[in-house]
Every structure is written in C-alpha cells, then in structure tokens.
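Quick entry, no commentary yet.
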Amino acid sequence: MNVVITGASRGIGFETVKALAKAGVLKIIGISRNYKQLCQLKDLCSQLSMTEFIPIPYDFQQIIVSESKLVGLVKQHMNHIDILINNAGTLVNRPYDQISADEINRLFTVNYITPALLIKNLLPLLKAGQAHIVNITSIGGYQGSMKFKGLSHYSASKAALASLTECLAEEYKNDKMVFNALALGAVQTEMLAEAFPNYKASLTSEQMGEFIANFAMNGKAFFNGKILPISTTTP
C-alpha cells in the first residue's frame, strides 16, 4: 500500500504516520517544511516496522508557483497512490477586522489551495490506485457547528475544503476513487494551544492519529463524499 500524507512532521500527521507504519503500510511519503523532524520520523518508522518512509521537505505556501516540482518528487517514488491524507494546515487566531490580506492568503493557500492542487496533479496516480482521499478539516468549518471569535478565516478555509470533498466525490464517482473529510474537534496539539492557550483537550494527537490511519485504510468501504465530525468536545 502506498500512502502520501502532508503535514507529517508534527502533531496529528506525525502520529498518523506512526500508526500507519505499525499497521504495516509498505511505503509512506511524508511532506512538510521541517525536514529534520521528517528524518526523525523516518528513523522511528524503521524501528516500528518494515515501512519505507520517504521524507519530502516542501513549503506549501509556494504551491502556486511550484506545484509541478512537488508532484514530480512524489512520482519519483510511486506509480500509484492508495491513500492521500491532506493533513497540512495553518492557523491564525486574530479578530476579523485585524487580520491582514497576507494572513488570509496564507490560510487559504495552505488549508485549501494546497490540497486542491495536490489532488488535481496526482489524479493519474490516485486513479491508478483507486485511492481513498482523506481531507482533514475542522469542526469549526462544519456547517451548523459552534464558531469562535478570531478563527473566521481559518474556519472558512476548512469549510471550503469540506465542500470540495463533496464535489470531488460526485465528479469522480465513476473512477473508483473515494473522497471523505474528517472535521476534527479539539485535539491536544500545538495548533490547538495557539488557538486556545488555556484549554486542555481530552484527545491526544496519538489517539487521533490512530483513528485517522484506521479510517484511511478502511473507511472507503463505508463512506464516500461525507464530512464526518470527529469531536468529543468543543472549546
């Protein structure tokens, strides 16, 4: 099984890779800006199983001008993809009238444009693997959920990714690819600490990583085009 996951160097992405390695996935490409932490993850995977972990350092804020470069790096190591997990994300916690245009651009580039372009450019490999594409969104971008001051654009970018998931499931339903989104609630990560400094989540990144890994491997048999809220608490 071939897996590609973004945002693999820390938090939920890091733990998801560990869970996939423990499950015996043969090859995983992990993409993140932090090459040092990706290399640490590679060493850890080699201790857990026979999984081949391939680190690819990449800054997702450059996706618009260098999308072909990233896709070329993936294609060097895989001729098909069974699972794509779009986990990379960024957050800005700032009142709506104080956030800058550059910050809005960064939020939508990393949280929406990156997974959108990655899916588009990897379509031949995804079709070849009849892949399960799992987009990691946020409960804040889930329609009807509680919203929070300072996270308007973050939530909007995640809502856009959720909507894209539904659209792609319909557009490619005859290609045997499956698209789902997991709208995560509070998980104890560095990103949560940025948004809610004094809040302690009941779920750890390790627990959520294990859940995402299991869903990525098995969920396509039960869901397609679904936005699934994964939340025990709302800060």
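second:
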Amino acid sequence: MTDLLTLAGVHTHIGPYHILHGVDFGVPEGQTTMLLGRNGAGKTTTLRTIMGLWPASSGRIALAGQRIERSATPDIARLGVGYVPESMAVFSDLTVRENLILAAREGAPDDARLQWIFGFFPALKRFWLSRAGALSGGQKQMLSIARAIVEPRRLLLIDEPTKGLAPAIVDGLIACLKDVKQKGATILMVEQNFRVAREVGDFVRVMDNGRIVYAGEMAALAEDRALQGRLLGLSLDSHQ
C-alpha cells in the first residue's frame, strides 16, 4: 500500500512554543487514517502544518512524492487538498450557495455533485439561499464539509467534524465520509467520537506531546482496551 502523504521529522513552532517534535507518519492512499490523542497533543497543529497555515520549522512533508512543506496554502489546495477546520470557517455573510460557489475551482458546482451532497446533508438544500451566519452550528459544520468535497479532492484533512453535532447529523456524516473514500479520496481526520473513528477509520496514528507514539490499524486499537488506556488515558468506548 502506497502512502499518499508522508511526514518525516516535522517540527513546528508557534511563537516561542515548540508544538511538534519530529512527527513521522504516512497516510495510505485511498484509505481513512484517524489522528487521535489527548487534548493538546498536537493533532490540530499537524493538520494546519500540512496545509501550510503554520509553517514547519524543519522536516519534510510530501504529497505523492512532491515536497510541500514550503508551499503556500493556496498552492497546496490546488494540488487537490481539501481542509475542514475545527472552527468550520464558513463565510457568514454569504449564502450557502455562494459559499459552495467560492469553494468550486471552476466557479460553479457540478449539479450532480450537489445533489450527491444534499443526499447526506438535506438542510443545505433547504437553506440554499440563506446566509451561512444564520445557520445552526450543526448546519455550519455540514456546510464546512460540503465546501471541502464540492469537488473531488485527492486528500481531505478534517478536524473534529462531529464536535457538538446531533446523532442524526453524525450518521449522515459517517455515510458521507464512507462514500467520499469509496470515490477515491484519501482522508486524514482528527476525531474524538470513537464510534465515528471506529466506523470510518482504516488506520490510526496516536499523538502525545507533539510526537507519534503509535501507528497501526484502527480495528486493532478498537479491540484493545488496555492499549487504549495506555495511549489515551481511558477506554475509547467512553467517547461514543
């Protein structure tokens, strides 16, 4: 299995703070890799560093063999990388329609693609002409995810997409992520909801103190409660 994304010896500083301490891992192509760890372990910083939002101080980041650790965020996006931040980051003063038009590189989302998205997130169709700022938190998260997948992406970086979402919306998100992978995308996702991690994850990387401390198959971690306790401090079953 070939890694689409690789990180080798990646360090990241934010001001005086040294956040990532030599991060090394690969993300297998066509698979979903979960990035887990305690709060403050460096998961969000890792995604932001890959996306070029926070520059790596040193180390190597490569997408399909092409080094990107010195690339600007727009250039990384043009390589087919989509990003869903934890903060959602939708354009509040624009409508749902306008948000998705801006996210489409050709300026107009493909209608068949939109109908596919509406199948998972019907609220976006219902509020198509509404301001994004007027949406609920869950609806904004739907829109943030829709922006990332409105066109086929080679790699998706997703940061805690189910945080604060109602169970019915989470179910739609799980179905969406499974279908996105089926269509050929590679996914690297930070997630605290273990049901989601278990259902969509093929592989897992666990972070602690800015380093990768475990790498393996998601199913193996899901079955080993002792390992969960050692790596994460508690059983993942408590994060249903």
